[in-house]
Design brief:
Blueprint (H helix, E strand, L loop, with lengths): L2 E8 L4 E8 L4 E5 L5 H7 L4 E6 L5 H4 L2 H10 L6 E4 L4 H4 L2 H7 L14 E2 L5 E4 L2 E7 L8 E5 L4 E5 L9 E6 L2 E2 L2 E2 L9 H11 L7 E5 L5 E2 H8 L1
Parallel strand pairs: 1-10, 3-4, 4-5, 5-6, 11-14
Antiparallel strand pairs: 1-2, 2-3, 7-8, 8-9, 9-11, 12-13, 14-15
Length: about 230
């Protein structure tokens, strides 16, 4: 019953990629595979991977998607459906340009067209588990978070502290421990990010664990002190 969440620090940007597993059905989704996709592919082979989900399409969260899909095809595995918000399409098609600017060309690829447009989903179903799909623009125009409102989850690998929480948020780059996502990049909007935090995320219970896209976990209760 419930979820198992496996966190792996990947890419040149020290990004938290995750494999989320519905324990009842052993169905899984890979969230934000920015790089090191062979590691993520091998770690996911105990499960049935139905989805690759992107909180947003910046290079460090999405640059490994194409290579990961190719691994599934090469190994004759069922191809997971790719899900992200359509407002991030421009970012999805800019990754190779950004990689060249950073001197990382060849390591990161543009993201294929999504199979599932998260603009059209208030909920997201993985096996027997249901998430609320929260639209949280600001750090990226199509940024989303996934909210799980039950205490039935267990964390593994990096950042495995549940901090006595009863709910879970896969938060991407909206909230960090004592901070928030950058808004000095193209297509970011500081005002939108503040609205997303105050109007959407701070409406969640204080006992919500926030699994961020970089660094350690935090809680909504803790971040309320910084963003109220």
């Amino acid at each position: 019953m419930g979820l198992s969440i496996f966190t792996y620090i990947v890419s040149d940007f020290q990004q938290n990629a995750r494999i989320v597993v519905d324990n009842d059905t052993q169905k899984a989704m890979i969230i934000d595979p920015g790089a090191d996709v062979e590691l993520l592919f091998n770690a996911s082979q105990h499960f049935s991977v139905d989805f690759i989900v992107l909180t947003h399409c910046h290079i460090d969260h999405a640059g490994g998607v194409k290579a990961l899909l190719e691994l599934f095809k090469k190994n004759k595995k069922t191809i997971p459906k790719l899900a992200y918000h359509n407002k991030d399409t421009v970012l999805a098609q800019s990754i190779e340009m950004v990689a060249t600017m950073y001197g990382l060309s060849g390591n990161y690829k543009n993201v294929p067209k999504c199979d599932i447009d998260l603009e059209n989903h208030d909920t997201f179903i993985l096996g027997n588990s249901e998430f609320k799909c929260l639209f949280t623009p600001g750090h990226a125009p199509g940024h989303i978070c996934l909210y799980y409102d039950k205490p039935t989850f267990k964390l593994h690998n990096e950042f495995s502290q549940t901090l006595n929480c009863n709910q879970l948020l896969i938060g991407g780059d909206t909230l960090f421990f004592g901070g928030q996502g950058r808004t000095d990049l193209p297509y970011c909007n500081h005002n939108d990010l503040i609205k997303s935090i105050r109007n959407t995320l701070l409406s969640l219970p204080n006992s919500t664990l926030v699994c961020s896209g970089h660094g350690q976990n935090t809680t909504i209760g803790n971040e309320r002190n910084f963003h109220s």
